[in-house]
UniProtKB/TrEMBL annotation:
GO terms for biological process: proteolysis. The lineage of its organism: Eukaryota, Metazoa, Ecdysozoa, Nematoda, Chromadorea. This is Peptidase A1 domain-containing protein. Signal peptide: none annotated. PANTHER family: BETA-SITE APP-CLEAVING ENZYME, ISOFORM A-RELATED. PROSITE patterns: PEPTIDASE_A1. Residues 1-134 form the Peptidase A1 domain. Belongs to the peptidase A1 family.
């Protein structure tokens, strides 16, 4: 999933248990892709500053262009996590994109899916459905 301009690409886990979107920050010691805000010409910080604070992940909220499902969302808030527990860091993803409603966000941000729905020219209801088959 691309973040920033030019895009910095991350393998994110789509989570039905979270509303927040975060990727690994530039200052985390890892071989995984990391987000470097200084490398994005469209990056900014919100005023007042916001933070993501989970037990296993903590970080700063930034504003940048985020692409999701072929849609480019300008000025979208997301977190770049600079404190990540080793167990989370060992997982095969570089961040999480929550899919639930904005009201459940720990960082008071709107995830790319909810932003796409809100910015759509179509009036889409906020209905969440998971079709799970074995």
């Amino acid at each position: 999933m691309p973040f920033g301009t030019p895009p910095q690409t991350f393998n994110v886990l789509l989570s039905t248990g979270s509303a927040d979107c975060w990727v690994t920050a530039f200052n985390v010691s890892t071989n995984k892709p990391r987000f470097f805000p200084q490398n994005s010409s469209t990056f900014s910080l919100p005023n007042p500053q916001k933070y993501l604070n989970f037990p296993s992940v903590q970080g700063i909220v930034g504003i940048d262009t985020v692409q999701f499902a072929g849609l480019s969302q300008a000025k979208l808030e997301f977190s770049f996590a600079d404190i990540i527990e080793n167990q989370t860091l060992a997982q095969p993803f570089d961040g999480i994109m929550g899919l639930t409603f904005t009201e459940l966000s720990k960082s008071a941000t709107k995830n790319p899916l909810m932003a796409a729905i809100d910015n759509s020219k179509y009036k889409l209801p906020k209905i969440f459905i998971v079709n799970h088959t074995q």
